[in-house]
Amino acid sequence: MPDLGALLVQADARHLPLRDESVQCVVTSPPYWGLRDYGTLGQLGLEPTPEEYVANMVEVFREVRRVLRPGGTLWLNLGDSYAASRSGPIGASTLMGDKHHAQHESRKAKEAAGRPNSRWRFDPWGLKPKDLVGIPWRVAFALQMDGWYLRSDIIWHKPNPMPESVGDRPTKAHEYLFLLTKSERYFYDADAIKEPVSGTAHARGSGVHPKSAPAGSGVRANESFSAAVRELVDERNKRDVWTVASRPYSGAHFATFPEALVEPCIKAGSRPGDVVLDPFNGSGTTGRVALRLGRSYVGADISREYLAEQAVRRLDGVQMEAVL
What is the pLDDT of residues 193-228, one digit of tens each? Predict the structure, then answer.
């Protein structure tokens, strides 16, 4: 891996051409289940059942765990789908709100409903038409069972969600970003992503706030904590609800997540000079942020078209290597 450079490889995410324990931080957003066909042979996301999708994700991140350092972190963004037909994985992610996709799936759902012998494929999980599938949590729990440490479920709150033509449920305005680790102890730079607080916050310590123990109250205050909270602070530990507006991208790759969502992941999960990986490179958002923050980057994608036409345009000085 070149110092502070970017290496793009054409590869299936389940078979990464990387050395064991060569990556410090992984930030990625795999294809969502049942959302769209990217027209690439071997692509993930079009499995006929959610069980098969989850099994493939476990296989992908088992390979990611192999290349991740013991103290490394995985930041995994996943959107959900709705079961909308009896004939297959018909679900529309509310992140993209792809109008043409939704119309297409609606037609397929109506066609399937009219078949007298339609076989219900979601029986193992009891899913019915219109059910929220719960893909993000199914994947997260499966990864936990496979050995990953599930450390945090971060809510990506989108203040500008895609409008939905639904009248029987709230409009979806969030997605999940999971923080998973390979080991119990790992690198995490909390100071790098601290957030501003209101003007009334106090520093934290290990005791009782002095105002809670006024003279004559009979309550014994902890002196060490009293000393710690005398001064106001202007930063606090980052919370697990991140408000980040989604951003349009004019390229051919529809599913892009915003740089503002990626930045705190890389800042907290790596040091300058470390290697950051995205096994689903797509349009190269993770790579752009990694290079801007002084990290090296490896992006893998099964589609040579996306690597050549999208990521190369967005990443300056990329070394392109095809791995078949």
Answer: 999 986 556 555 544 454 455 556 666 666 665 665
CB atoms within 10 A of CB 207: 18
Both tokens of 264, joined, read: 């705190």
d(CA 321, CA 46): 27
Q: What are the residue ranges of helices labelled H in 184-258?
A: 223-228
Average pLDDT (55-79) is 97
How far apart are the C-alpha atoms of 158 and 236, rounded to whole Å? 22
Judge whether residue 49 has pLDDT over 70.
yes
Model pTM score: 0.79
Are 298 and 276 in contact by the 8 Å Cβ rule? The answer is yes
DSSP class of 202: B
CA distances from 147 to 177, 256, 277 (A): 18, 28, 20
Number of helices and strands in the chain (H, E): 8, 11
- Distance between CA atoms of residues 96 and 239, nearest Å: 25
Please enumerate in sequence order all residues whose Cβ is within 8 A of that of 11, keeping only pairs 6 or more positions apart, or say none: 17, 300, 301, 302, 323
Residue position matching structure tokens 């000085």: 317
CB under 8 Å to 136, separation ≥6 — which residues?
78, 79, 80, 175, 176, 178
- Residue of 74, 194, 193, 91 whose CA lies nearest to 140: 74
Q: Set out the domains of the chain in order of their start, with CATH numbers.
A: 6-194+240-321 (3.40.50.150), 196-236 (no CATH)
Residue with token string 């990694």: 290
Q: Residue 275's closest CA among 9, 21, 92?
A: 21
d(C-alpha 11, C-alpha 87), whole Å: 31
Residue with tokens 């801007």: 292
